Amino acid sequence: MSGGFAFNADNAAKAKALLAKYPEGRRPSAVMGLLDLAQRQVGWVSQEVIEAVAEMTGLAPIRVQEVATFYTMYNLSAVGHHHVQICTNICCLLTGSDGVAETAKRALGIEFGETTPDGRFTLSEVECLGACVNAPMMQIGDDYYEDLTPESAKAIFETLKTGGTPKPGPQSGRQFSAPAGGPTTLKTLGGEAG
Amino acid sequence: MPKLSIDGRDIEVEAGTTILQAAERLGIEIPRFCYHERLAISGNCRMCLVEVEKMPKPVASCAQPVGDGMVVRTNTPAIRKARQGVMEFLLVNHPLDCPVCDQGGECDLQDQAVAYGADRGRCREPRRQVHDHDYGPLIATTMTRCIHCTRCVRFLNEIAGVPELGAVGRGEHMEVGTYLGRAIGSELSGNLIDLCPVGALTNKPAAFTYRSWELKKTESADVMDALGSRIRIDTRGNQVVRILPVADDAVNEEWLSDRSRFACDGLTRQRLDRCYVRRDGKLTPASWHEAVMAVANALRGAPGGRVAAIAGDQADAESMVALKDLMAGLNSPNMDCRGDGAKLEAGVRASYLFNSTIAGINQADAVLIVGSNPRKEAPVLNARLRARWLTGQMKAAVIGPKTDLTFGHDWLGDTAEILSSVAEGKHPFLEVLKAAKRPMLILGQGALARDDGAAVLSLARKLADAAGLIKPDWNGFNVLHTAAGRVGGLDLGFVPGKGGRDVAGIVDGAARNEIDVLFLLGADEIDMAGLGHAFVVYLGSHGDAGAHRADVVLPAPAYTEKSGTWVSTEGRVRRSRLAAFPPGEAKPEWMAIKALSDAMNRALPYATLAEVRQRMVAVNPIFAAVDEIRPAAWGAFGMLGAVSDKPFESTIADFHRVDPISRASETMAACSKAFGPKCGCHSKKTVTHD
Ligand code: SF4
Ligand code: FES
């Protein structure tokens, strides 16, 4: 009935598995997973997606819309191939997210909330993504790029533009969220002494 | 059972009771916006904060179950301050437009702002803007006033079973609305207006025409369907401004159907306010004396067998008893109150009542609905069926039109044959009914108002016996009426006497010129074109089909303009009160009939309303027990016969246009246009009950 959207074969199998996780009569529980799966397939949560998920879960469309509009990670309009989300909350701001944002805008030639004409990049300003210890940071697709500087951010965009895959995680060379200058305790657990 | 103390008073309540409910029992009122005793608890407005000893922060009393030994305080300085804080937040975005808001004067927010509001706001940010929605012809929205209590969302979800409203977005951006801005397709939608604690949802047809404190409030009874809902008629001057439900747990709880609520503008349109007599083929104004004499002349010389009377769907018992007595005086056995041709018999009262009572639905564990669409015929009753179904303790099945009833059911088919196979045990649903402790059959007029109605009735009786619907303390044989006047008519025996004609016979007789004089007591639903040369006397309130065909029109008050008696589908005697005066020269039907009897020297033996009512009690003692239910004895009825394979259909084709009042109503016409003839049921299936 919802002419517009249908899962492809792969995702249909995944959707089935998702629904099977919940007992009979509890199909609505799968709503978030299904929305996510659909978003992965078409990039965003469209009206067709909402109606298809409503049909699959037995929920009224408005119930699905409530979920989709509550969580900011569901995109309510189409986004580019790479969805660049830059955090501008307090920790990132203090550590230079302004510069990162500026770089992104210049590198991509768009403002926050816009998509490049070729449809490859969408730039979004987001609230805290929970990686404050590695601020400033941005999320592209499913990956976090942390400890950014304007230069490292620029390098990431250049790589993406040429079709490459930049290495996610801290760009400063530090290990995860270990202290910036290298470990200060448990030093022997690191590389050589291992 | 946990014991606790609230404001120093001890109380013991069942486990699971909330603090707010316990306090209510002590008569301690806690302010609230989102809590409503008939809706699920959501706990989102935070107005109901109270202090509980040993709890570090104030708690929302509506969502907090009591605990043993709790010490609760509802009125401390800290609590007052906390509520003031909540109020301040609520008012941050709420416009200060009380002077132009229809809710003014009956607004929870306004009232509580008096108790907890500050005299000035501290918020310097601009107020947020919210766009209004189009919810259809009945509900006006001003969404900036919404405080997100979600009562409206919960009502549609839980009670009405049309999950169309929701809260979209979050935080500062949250808005209550419908999916894609659709109108609200529920026949109970008007209740949202009552539920909304602020002026976000208001009465659209009555917008800007009243202030609540100017209205005169008259408690009365509803006659727009056969439930006998209790209503309050609000009038200003002599005009009915709005109609609201009055809570009655046994009947309508707190709800009212949209037709009962919004058809009231039809009370001022197309009204008959004076007598008319047809002269030279044209209805011309006449005095009461002329009109009555014209009828008396027509009757003079007409033998009893050539006189007939049909009582319409909203006829009150007073007028029917008078008309019946008049017909007796004229020696005519030709009368009928079953305008739709339902093959009900007046003999055994249990054969035409909703015997389990409406409240009995709350105990039913299996129900078979035959030839009815309760959602259209009695929306409030349908909501009760849904509520029972939601508990998971009731199985439902339908033989009749296939529609979305807002609750899950098995559709068994739509012919009498299926009914007979259930009655004979050839269909597995009989076992479900048999296994049930409180089984119930709901027999609609759609199954009875047909040529084989009597056979269907006897099939239903057979099924009642086969399924054990009748138990010592339970009678699950239920007839669902759609006409408010029907049960009263049957109780008075307003049916053909010996050798008399029923509705079909009368119409047929008139067409063949075998009827000289025909009384139509507010009966507009018969085929007026085929009445032959009959002299038609129309008594009624509206210039509907009957008045157009009539030779004499005698104007009558509508149900809001007289004290009348009706008997609801469950056999409850209801009495309306005069809320406004009838227009022009209209006077109650029984008075007109009395005047007629005087003119013919066959004076009826009563002159006052009290005497008419004594006469009603003499005919049937049931009329002495106003607002009560007297269980009816089971008996033999129905007539075995062949049934046709014509599918059962609901007798109500267009929910919004059923009787002369709703047909005259512009609001109902607009609804009919917006929602289609079938209330909201035409819209896409509303999934939550598959
Ligand atoms: S519209 Fe009224 S009932 Fe609905 S959430 Fe807003 S304030 Fe509550
Ligand atoms: S009434 Fe308790 S939170 Fe709204």
Structural description of this entry:
- The complex is a heterodimer of chains A (194) and B (690).
- Chain A is an alpha/beta fold and 194 residues long.
- In chain A, 38% of the residues lie in helices and 11% in strands.
- Chain A is built from seven helices and five strands; from the N terminus they run H-H-H-H-E-H-H-E-E-E-H-E.
- Chain A has a five-stranded mixed sheet, covered by helices on one side.
- In chain A, helix 3 (47-57) crosses helix 4.
- By secondary structure, chain B is an alpha/beta fold.
- Among the domains of chain B are: 3-75, Ubiquitin-like (UB roll) (Roll), CATH 3.10.20; 275-345 and 501-624, Rossmann fold; 355-480, Dimethylsulfoxide Reductase, domain 2, CATH 3.40.228.10.
- Chain B has 21 helices and 28 strands.
- Chain B is globular and about 90 Å long.
- FE2/S2 (inorganic) cluster binds next to loops of chain B.
Which helices and strands appear, and what pairs or packs with what?
The complex is a heterodimer of chains A (194) and B (690).
Chain A: H1 9-20, H2 31-42, H3 47-57, H4 61-70, E1 82-87, H5 90-94, H6 97-108, E2 121-126, E3 138-140, E4 143-146, H7 150-161, E5 169-170
Parallel strand pairs in A: 1-2, 4-5
Antiparallel strand pairs in A: 1-3, 3-4
Chain B: E1 3-6, E2 9-12, H1 19-25, E3 49-52, E4 59-60, E5 70-73, H2 77-92, H3 108-116, E6 139-141, H4 151-160, E7 165-168, E8 175-178, H5 191-195, E9 201-203, E10 216-221, E11 230-236, E12 239-245, H6 258-262, E13 275-279, E14 282-286, H7 288-299, E15 307-311, H8 317-329, E16 334-336, E17 366-370, H9 374-377, H10 379-390, E18 395-399, E19 410-413, H11 416-423, H12 429-435, E20 439-444, H13 445-448, H14 453-467, E21 470-471, E22 474-475, E23 477-480, H15 486-491, H16 503-511, E24 517-521, E25 535-540, H17 545-549, E26 552-555, E27 565-567, E28 573-575, H18 589-599, H19 609-619, H20 660-664, H21 666-675
Helix pairs in contact in B: 7-18, 8-18, 8-19, 11-14
The complex binds iron/sulfur cluster and FE2/S2 (inorganic) cluster.
